[in-house]
Amino acid sequence: NAQGEEFFFLPVSVPVGGSVTLTCSVNPSSSSGWKYYWYKDDSAYYRYTDTTSNVPIRPVVTLYPNWSEIYRGETITVRCEIHGGDTEWDYEWETNSMIKPPNQNEYRIRSASSSNSGNYRCKGRMKSSQHKTTEWSDSVTLTVSSDKPRATLTAQSSIIPAGGSVTLSCSVEGSAGWKFDWFRRDSVSSKAQLMRGNEANRVISVSQGGLYHCRGGRGDPVYYTEDSSDDTVMQNSEFNCFISAKLRQIKLCDLCCLSVSFSDLERWK
Fold first, then answer.
1. Could you say which of 115, 145, 175 is where a domain stops?
2. 1-10: per-residue pLDDT in tens?
3. Is 26 inside a domain boundary?
4. 80 and 108 in contact (C-beta within 8 Å)?
5. How does DSSP assign 179-235, residue by residue?
């Protein structure tokens, strides 16, 4: 054994449901700054920062980005994180998904599909001693939706008051992390032009009439939703012209109807 290390092997009985306290020390007792490593049955590896800690190393699986729902085609990274110490690790994964991650601490899924859905957990194996490992991490569930989401545009009003504006909002139901692109066109036959791009704010104000739609984007590379449906917004003057035209159509229609009615009466005389 290295100088200064002390080992005591004492037979200990642990009561059912109980525990015992183990102490590790380094002589001389005046020295400090030690970190303590514990082994059980030469197979499970534990690390303690001091003699009062009693929690074994357990890796943590994280999803990045950590969104509640992942869509087909998005990019996501599954990570196995082992905190504390300067030990070098090999990594082992266990999953019930159709695709098994490589034995690395990070698994980048560049175009997610339903085949990637499943529970993921990992453990670390010491490079210097392959039979010594951490405990298994808790499982993390990755669910990949096969449907591409569609943005929804909502207009505060379809009429812009004289000298005023109307508020438009864009949303993607059931998920987060989106930024928004806004588009406008003059008519159904004209091409949509990008007004604003990569907006973190899902609400904008517009003072110009036209057909508006939006879409959401998130991630790196950016993953886009389906475009929202068009929403028509008219300025007050345009709305008045529209109503006047409709009224003229109604009057012309009334005259036509009257003409037809008189013709029918003449025919039946």
1. 145
2. 444 555 555 5
3. no
4. no
5. EEEEEEESSTTSPPEEEEEEES-SEEEE-S-EEEEEEEEETTTTEE-BPPPPEEEEE
